[in-house]
Specification:
mainly alpha, about 200 residues
Amino acid sequence: MHWTANAINTYMTEYNLEKQLRSQVADEVYNLIYFFDEHLGHLIFFSSLHAMISLWTIFHTSWTLSSPCRHSTASRLHCSLVWFEFLLPIAAGGACGVVHAIAFIEGSSKWLGLSLSGAQIVAVISMFLLERDKRPIDIVRNCEVLRFTAALGLSIFVANGLYSLAFPNGETPSEMGGWWCIVNPSRFEYCNNGASDVL
């Protein structure tokens, strides 16, 4: 539902603008497409995805407290790979969170993003409570799922906050002509006119 409606919506409002496709569609029809794309589609897709990630985090126990880099005989390359393994889930979770925040912002559903982000933080806290017989530093160091989920939740909060600071009036990218008008407004003539003039 979400991907189909999003493809139709984006094609009408951000591509082939010279054809004025949006103006050829009745408001009632467009509003239904937008609802399936940005509201119901987001609610179904992201709620299911974040619920799965939360459960995955809470019940993930397939890790040990061993760390090969603590031994003096470990090679430098081996230690580098350990650090890469430590940082990779953080980078992946952060990137995932930023992408999700963009989707929530575009769909005027930041409340959903912040709610799901809060759920991820609760899942991380739950992991510490379930494993309270272990040292927190050991849990962070050895549980890649926890690092991914923590980065995911925090990056959604941060990305939403930064966007709100940059655009305090709450305009969505579509209202400003699309994401390209934010990233590189000089590339497209219609960016200077705003989405309302284009559509």
